[in-house]
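Service request form, structural biology core

Requester: graduate student, group of Dr. S.
Request type: structure prediction, single chain
Budget code: on file
Notes: please return the result as structure tokens.

Sequence provided:
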Amino acid sequence: MLYHLFHYLEQFDIPGARLFDYLTFRSGFALVLSLFISIHIGKGIINWLKRNSMADEERADSMGGSSEKSGTPTMGGIIILISILVPCLLLGKLDNVYMLLMLVTTVWCGVLGLADDYDKVFNHHKEGIKGRYKIIAQVGLGLIVAATMYLSPAIVMHENVSIEKAGAETEVVHKTQAVKAPSSTIPFVKNHNFNYSYFFKWAGEHAVTLGWVLFALVAIFVVTAVSNGANLVDGIDGQATGVCAINMIALAIMCYLGGNVIYAGYLNIMYIPDSGELVVYAAAFIGATVGFLWYNFHPAEVFMGDTGSLMLGGAIAVFALLIRKEWLLPLLCGLFVVWALSDILQVEVRKWNIEHKMKDIRLFRMAPLHHHFIWKAKPTWDYIIKKPLKPMAEEKFVMRIFLIAIMLAVLTFVTLKVR
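Core staff response, request fulfilled:
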């Protein structure tokens, strides 16, 4: 909104109007504004949630039975939602298809999470809305993203090509012709390019179309997996908020590099015109999550609930799809993978032991994984992995998780220089 206003005012030679043409200025402004909004409105929203009895007691009980969690309001993701949307609407290019897709994703996943939290708090349904409805919504979002990337003439890419020069030097150039292709970036291979149409060479002229169909299936899986993965990591104060902020910082850097033809050549990745606008969204996302930590770090004054976790995970997934980096997510979002596996293994091990030994023996003290490390109450069941023998301080555990998330982000960039 402000971008378009100041772009119009440039013709009148108003001092400072051209500042809004600079991506770095608008991104920095979005970061500061989202941080300010989240801190400024946070206390008021928390008090409103308390007055309306928005506490998720099931969540408090699941965190070791600690009385200090009791009565803590949920649905705090509303703070993050507002703090992302306002800066993007004010500072983003609202005619940019990438920005529009991210705004749709934010609202879509935020409303889905809000409905889930509402069902838990007011209807006292422990699991929230039925799982199939969540999956339908996530599949719908994946289809919208894939269809828009296929149909929009504004979403194109320039493939990078390595040219061997004398003296064992390699120069990376980008093809001058923009193409619409179901391509993605993968690590450890020359030029880091992978076209989904590769599997359909036998289909002749239909190979590209089938490639986009496969991309749509991948998009559905990525949106569903990352969104639910973030939801699992959101179990203790500040953990999901900080991890998602770190993941988005890494994606924002990749986006900035991939949206600049010179930097894309240095990193040897495809050049995606106009995708740099996503950096404004990423800046607002980072500012909103860091600002939310003001109230969410231990001891939390508010939980983000599914309103926040489903939205943050969905935004990370769609952002990665738009910049063609979805194959880097298993490493970058490795914590989501580990948390999901811990939950699956806990269920399967318990089921197997009950079926074969008629005894309730589990793999972890509690699942997802963070509960195994910080669980304070003595469980009534036996479990296989005994360490740690004593519960870890919540703050120490969360800080270590942040350090692991940073290491995974660094390793993600390292993979792009190994081939």
